[in-house]
TrEMBL record:
One of its GO terms (molecular function) is dimethylpropiothetin dethiomethylase activity. It comes from Rhodovibrio salinarum. The lineage of its organism: Bacteria, Pseudomonadati, Pseudomonadota, Alphaproteobacteria, Rhodospirillales. The keyword NAD does not apply. InterPro entries: DMSP_lyase, RmlC-like_jellyroll, RmlC_Cupin_sf. It comes from the Bacteria. This is Dimethlysulfonioproprionate lyase DddL. Keywords: Lyase. The keyword Ubl conjugation does not apply.
Length: 213
């Protein structure tokens, strides 16, 4: 079993996540500034721990037919080097839905994959880093995460959370634990989001993902 330091692309990817949460403005928000700092601290701990890289079974979902286009768009955006590393590793990703009950239309329009976390491939207990892929025109229903603080960083596509604004690639959105949120995606391009979760290890191990009513 290889360890992180023996797999350069996985190590480069973690460094890209670290850089993403270390550059740019927090918009004057102390909560976002604190979250970004904690994400960087956990990534530093993870790199220093040099965890094993697990060979999870790669798996696609219907929405991954849009992944190539998402990478094409991300290649011209502010996170283009991160997108290039993700593209090299994409053959190892395990895409999943995460919910026990997924609305049938959503099964063709959404999936996520875990990069670092309890389910790997990079083993971590105190943070989850991953990707969410949404097809054009998707509405991701309202949901929340108990005891988990979450942020999304856009790599490709235009999207909105809770109908508050339109976010372009490079934008970061922060959700406090338990904060309900709903995502909508523009109708001309897929949306690829990098996300970070922080929370108690037992909650990250079993986040109990459910949709609101």
């Amino acid at each position: 079993m290889d360890i992180l330091s023996e797999q350069p692309d996985w190590l480069y990817l973690l460094r890209e996540y670290h850089a993403t949460f270390g550059t740019g403005s927090s918009g004057g928000s102390n909560a976002i500034r604190s979250h970004r700092r904690r994400v960087r601290e956990e990534i530093n701990r993870l790199v220093q721990a040099d965890p094993p890289i697990l060979g999870r079974q790669a798996e696609e979902k219907p929405v991954t037919a849009h992944l190539g286009r998402a990478f094409d768009l991300a290649a011209t955006g502010p996170l283009n080097t991160m997108a290039a590393t993700l593209r090299r590793l994409s053959g190892y990703f395990t895409w999943e839905w995460g919910y026990e009950r997924v609305p049938r239309p959503l099964t063709k329009r959404y999936a996520y994959c875990e990069i670092a976390g309890p389910k790997g491939p990079v083993q971590a207990e105190r943070i989850i880093l991953g990707l969410v892929l949404l097809a054009p025109g998707t509405t991701y229903p309202q949901h929340s995460h108990k005891q988990i603080e979450e942020s999304y960083v856009s790599l490709a596509g235009a999207w909105s959370e809770n109908d508050a604004a339109v976010y372009a690639p490079g934008s970061l959105i922060f959700n406090q634990p338990g904060q309900a949120h709903r995502i909508t995606v523009g109708d001309r391009a897929p949306c690829l989001l990098a996300y970070a979760w922080l929370g108690p290890p037992e909650r990250l191990q079993a986040p109990g993902m459910t949709f609101g009513r």
